[in-house]
Amino acid sequence: MHDEPEVAVLRLGHRPGRDERMTTHVGLTARALGADRVWIPDNAGQSKETVEDITDRFGGPFSVELTDSPKAILRDWDGRIVHLTMYGERIQDVEDEIHTAHRDGGEPILVVVGSEKVSFDVYEEADWNVGVTNQPHSEVAGLAVFLDRLFEGHELEREWANADRRVVPMETGKRVEPVEDEG
Amino acid sequence: MHDEPEVAVLRLGHRPGRDERMTTHVGLTARALGADRVWIPDNAGQSKETVEDITDRFGGPFSVELTDSPKAILRDWDGRIVHLTMYGERIQDVEDEIHTAHRDGGEPILVVVGSEKVSFDVYEEADWNVGVTNQPHSEVAGLAVFLDRLFEGHELEREWANADRRVVPMETGKRVEPVEDEG
Questions:
Q1: A64 touches chain B (CB under 8 A)
Q2: A142 touches chain B (CB under 8 A)
Q3: What's A7-157's CATH class?
Q4: Which residues of B are annotated as a binding site?
Q5: CATH architecture label of B7-178
Q6: Residues of B36-72 as b/e, b for ≥16 C-beta within 10 angstroms?
Q7: MF terms per GO, please (chains A, B) (predicted)?
């Protein structure tokens, strides 16, 4: 997010049809909650289009890339890797360490979110396996809570560039305004 | 959650097939992140079964109920209503007020999460329309961040009753232990 070291999200696994919306929601959540980019599996082209369409309309910067080799991304990542899993260490126990690496150490963070089954390599490749609770729930929920805690709520204040519209927060009702082109 | 006033979640709308996993993830997220119960539409019986199965195995208390009349639930709710919507007031601006009502005022909270289209009645019925960002993303992500902030992380420490298994947090790997019956 802006002046901080990069935060990227890697979505592992995608079963066309069944996972369409989950993968899309991973991408949209990554964008809305302050990540700089997301990699999704190369069979999830529809999700890529949806997230890019939202970025075109509501702003960025945010990039979505397809990958046919998540292993290469894990191997080549120049920074720290956080794998979100219900089997991992408790987020409340490790978040300070991750903060320190990211903000004080200037380390980019790759956040890995799986679908049903994640290979053991990923657990080994990760610097931290982190449980947002050790309960089964949702990779989208886990990602959201993780990012909100990583950025300590600052992601809620971010500005969006090159948006063509903006939602105006309201007590009741819906208001969307066009955004003047600021360059 | 335990000694606090009740927090319930109401899921509006469910298109069978298309919304199966989103509705299930709303239910599982509500459970994992400290809500006491969830209502889901009566055509989402499959999601109910999945969430109940997880509760049987990993513990509770947590209840899942089907409803054919979300309007009646909104009308009859004895407490405050928070509707999560990208058009609402910014969570960072209203969360203190909601905290105060819930904890100091002892008010039960009903958190309403929609699917695609939410009728205007809901905006009017709500005490707060709240945006977890004013960006389009995921009702599951919005619910997760909202609950984590409402409970200020205490939901991560909750104990589970009547579980038959428990995940043991680990740096690397997966460990699930049977739980002795504590009654």
A1: no
A2: yes
A3: alpha beta
A4: 84, 114-118
A5: 3-Layer(aba) Sandwich (3.40)
A6: bbbbbbeebeebbebbbebbeebbbebebeebeebee
A7: hydrolase activity; tRNA (cytidine(56)-2'-O)-methyltransferase activity
